[in-house]
Design goal:
This protein is mainly α. It is about 75% helix and about 0% strand. It is built from 17 helices and no strands. The longest helix has 29 residues.
Length: about 375
C-alpha cells in the first residue's frame, strides 16, 4: 500500500507540475512499479480488491455530485451516443482482426472488447476539474451507463455465437434485467431514497448514521447491479445519484476522504496489468497500435456525430470523454483467453488498448474542455 499509494501521488504531483492531469501520472506509476519495469509490485487479489473498492467509491462520489434531472434531460441523446459509439468500434475491431488473418471468433471478441467506455477515467478527470455540471459531462455519464449495459449485451451475444449457439431467450433476459434495474433505480429509486434518507439521521443513535446508511446503499446496489447483469460500478453510481439531494455535507466529506484513499489503487491497477513484452514482437506491436488508433478514432467519431446537435464543441468533448476502455474490455479478454479463442498476443493487445486509452484520455479531456470550469 505504501509503494502503490506513494508512487501514485508522487507521479501525480510531477504530472500536475508539468501541466498534465495527475490521473495519467497515477496510471503511469502502475507501469513503472509493475512487472513491466521495476517489478516492485505485481497484480494480486489484494490490490484487485482495493482497485474494485476504489472505482466503486469514485462512481458513488460522482453520483453524489450529479442531479437526476440533468441526466434525464440528455437521456435520449445519450442513448444515441452510446449506440453509435459502440457500433463503429465493434466493426473496426472485428474487421482489423479478420484482415490480420485471425479467426472469426477472435474477431468477434476483439470487436466486443472495444465497444464499452470505462466511465471511471473520464469521470475522475471531470470531477477533479469541476466539469460535472457541464452538459457534455452529463451526456458522457449517462451514455457511459447505457454503454455498459449495451457492452455486456454485445459480449453475451458474442459468447453465444462463439459457442456455436445463439440463445435468444438468455440474451433477452439479461438485457431486460439490466435495463429494468437501471431505469427503475434511476427514476423511482432515487425519489424514494431522497424522501426516506434524511430521516435516518434523527432515528438512528449511532455516530455518522447517515454515512452508514449511505455505505449500505452503495454496496447493496452494487451487488444488485452485478446480479442484474451490469457492472457493480453502475449500481454505485446510481446509489450516489439517489443520495444527491438527501446527503449532507458530512456524508460527502467522509465519502471524499475514502475516495481519495482508494482511487489511486484503481488507477495504478490499470498500469500494473500492462505487459511491456508486447513491444518485443513487431507484428503484435503494429497490430496493437492499429487497434489502439481504431479504438480512439471510431469511438470519438461515433459519439461526436451522435452529439453534433449540441454543437461541435460539445460533440468533441463527448467524443473524447467516451474514449477510455476498461471493465468490459477486460472481461472480454479474459473470457476469450480462457476459452482459447484469443491467443496470448491478442489478449496483450486488448490490455494495451485499455492502458493506452486510459493514458491519452485525461490530456485530451483537458484540451477539449480548456481552463474554464462550470460552463453551462
Amino acid at each position: 500500500m505504501l509503494i502503490v499509494f506513494g508512487s501514485a501521488k508522487f507521479m501525480a504531483e510531477i504530472f500536475e507540475r508539468i501541466g498534465l492531469p495527475g490521473i495519467a501520472g497515477e496510471i503511469l506509476a502502475g507501469i513503472v512499479i509493475g512487472p513491466s519495469a521495476l517489478g516492485w509490485i505485481a497484480p494480486n487479489e489484494t490490490l484487485k480488491a482495493l482497485s474494485d473498492l476504489g472505482v466503486l467509491f469514485l462512481l458513488f462520489s460522482i453520483g453524489l455530485d450529479v442531479k437526476l434531472a440533468e441526466l434525464l434531460r440528455v437521456s435520449l441523446l445519450s442513448t444515441l451516443v452510446a449506440a453509435l459509439g459502440e457500433l463503429l468500434p465493434f466493426v473496426a475491431g472485428w474487421g482489423i482482426v479478420l484482415a490480420w488473418g485471425g479467426t472469426p471468433n477472435a474477431a468477434l471478441f476483439m470487436g466486443a472488447s472495444l465497444v464499452a467506455t470505462s466511465v471511471g477515467i473520464s469521470a475522475s478527470v471531470l470531477k477533479a476539474r469541476d466539469f460535472l455540471h457541464h452538459v457534455a459531462s452529463q451526456i458522457i455519464l449517462a451514455a457511459a451507463v447505457i454503454d455498459d449495459v449495451l457492452g455486456l449485451i454485445v459480449l453475451a451475444v458474442v459468447g453465444s455465437l462463439s459457442r456455436g449457439r445463439f440463445n435468444l431467450l438468455e440474451i433477452a433476459l439479461t438485457a431486460g434485467l439490466a435495463t429494468i434495474f437501471v431505469v427503475v433505480t434511476a427514476i423511482w429509486g432515487t425519489r424514494i431514497v431522497a424522501r426516506v434518507f434524511p430521516h435516518f439521521g434523527s432515528r438512528i443513535r449511532a455516530d455518522e448514521a447517515q454515512f452508514h446508511v449511505a455505505m449500505v446503499l452503495l454496496f447493496g446496489l452494487a451487488v444488485v447491479a452485478s446480479y442484474a447483469g451490469v457492472a457493480a460500478i453502475v449500481g454505485a453510481f446510481l446509489a450516489g445519484l439517489a443520495l444527491a439531494d438527501g446527503a449532507d455535507s458530512r456524508v460527502r466529506n467522509l465519502t471524499r476522504g475514502v475516495t481519495e484513499l482508494l482511487v489511486p489503487f484503481f488507477l495504478v491497477g490499470i498500469g500494473l496489468n500492462f505487459d511491456m513484452g508486447i513491444f518485443r514482437s513487431r507484428p503484435t506491436l503494429v497490430m496493437a497500435l492499429v487497434i489502439f488508433l481504431a479504438a480512439v478514432v471510431t469511438k470519438a467519431i461515433g459519439c461526436s456525430v451522435a452529439a453534433i446537435s449540441r454543437g461541435w464543441q460539445t460533440a468533441f468533448r463527448v467524443g473524447v470523454g467516451m474514449i477510455p476502455r476498461g471493465e468490459v474490455a477486460m472481461i472480454a479478454a479474459q473470457v476469450g483467453l480462457s476459452t482459447l479463442i484469443l491467443s496470448a498476443q491478442m489478449y496483450s493487445v486488448i490490455i494495451f488498448v485499455v492502458v493506452a486509452t486510459a493514458l491519452v484520455t485525461p490530456p485530451l479531456l483537458k484540451l477539449a474542455f480548456g481552463p474554464v470550469a462550470r460552463v453551462p
